Each structure stands twice: as structure tokens, then as C-alpha cells.
Amino acid sequence: MNQRPQVFDPTLNRFISFRPVEFERDVERLHSWHNEEHVIPYWQQNMSLPEYKAHLATLLADTHQTLWIGEIDDVPMSYWETYWAEEDSLGNYYESHPSDQGVHLLIGKPEYLGKGYALPMLRTIVEYLLLTPQTNRVVTEPDARNEKMIHIFSKCGFESVERLSLPDKEAQLMICKREEFQRRWEGSLHDTNV
Questions:
Q1: Over the stretch 8-40, which tens digit does the pLDDT of each residue have?
Q2: Measured between alpha carbons, how far is 27 from 96 in angstroms, rounded to an integer?
Q3: Hey, how many other C-beta atoms are within 10 angstroms of the C-beta on 53?
């Protein structure tokens, strides 16, 4: 995937954009975000900076996924991973299809929590993933304890499918089908690319 153009979200009255993670530019920022109290329980990547640098280098070298910095009005404030689900370990835990794409996210900066940014940003990136013509489903597997995130995914159009026991967590598998997403957001998606 290439960088998504900046879009204006009328519900926020702000610009949303995503850009690919760049190691030197973002490693310290991402390390800081993964050590935030609201992130640690669900991501469990609160490691030392040298350990995190090695971890991020491994993630960036993995070609089945793309790492993104989510921005509001050009201010970096969130981290996103999009991936081909069948090539991910998740593909071993449900009936995946080669065109299924997945998404993970975290709001890194605490001052952006509870401000209503997660849903419009999630909607933007799901819309982007569905630009791939063969992709008809976007999947996610938030920690089953993360009720706020499960609620946001549900509001976006994801349906809870089943509980999964993954190696690192008890997860809630959720799937957003193209038809449901388009039905839910018809006429309200971004049409202004800058």
C-alpha cells in the first residue's frame, strides 16, 4: 500500500492522514507510546529502547504487513498495522481468505484519548483497505478485555465472530464485511482528498 492522501473528516472538522512508519523518524515515538499506561496491558511491548529498536526493525522487514503513523492535522498521535490475514499467524485461527486484510491500532498520545478520534480514523483506514477490489473482509482481534476498542470496532461495522485463544492473549475475532461497511457508511465517507 502507498501512503493514503490526507482526507478532511467533517465529523471531526479535522484532517486525517496516515503515513508509513520510518524507522529513524518514528522509533523513539513508538517506543514511548508502547510504554504508556493505557497501551501496556493490551500490546505488551513495553521493552527497553534497544529491545524495541530490534522489534521494530523485525516488524518493518515483514512484508505481509504495513506499519502506519496516524495523524490528526499532521500531528502524529496513533499507530496502525495493516496486514494480509492469511499470511499472519491469525490466519491459523479462523477460516481466512487470501484477500482478507487485518488492522491493529493504538492511540499513542494520552491527550488524544476519549476525544472521538478512533472511530473516524478506523473508518478511514477500513475504507482504504476496501479500495483493494478483491478484499471483501477486514478482520481484527482486539484483546477480549478491551471493551472500548471492541465497541469502536462494532460502531465501524465489525461483527464479533468468536473468542480466540491466541499465544499472547484472549482475543475477540471481529470481521467487517464490505457490504455492511458500505451500507453503514453510504453517503458519509470522505470525498475530499487533498
A1: 999 899 999 999 999 999 999 999 999 999 999
A2: 31
A3: 16
Is 194 among the domain residues? Answer: no
- CA gap 163, 170 in Å, rounded: 7
Q: Is the pTM of this model over 0.85?
A: yes
Q: How far apart are CA 19 and CA 5, in angstroms?
A: 9
Listing DSSP states for 30-80 in one string gives HHHHHTSTTTHHHH-----HHHHHHHHHHHHH-TTEEEEEEEETTEEEEEE
Please indicate, yes or no, if residue 61 is contained in any of the structural domains. Answer: yes
Kindly state the DSSP code that residue 193 receives in the 8-state scheme: B
* Residue 117 located in a structural domain: yes
Q: Which CATH number belongs to the domain containing residue 20 in this structure?
A: 3.40.630.30
Cell 471481529, located at residue = 174
Q: Which domain holds residue 61?
A: 4-185
- Separation CA 95–CA 100 (nearest Å): 10
**Residue 168 binned pLDDT confidence (cut-offs 50, 70, 90):** confident
| Amino acid occupying residue 74 | D
Domain count, the chain: 1
Residue 5 confidence class, pLDDT cut points 50, 70, 90: low
Q: Is the pLDDT of residue 157 over 60?
A: yes
Residue 128, in any domain of the structure: yes
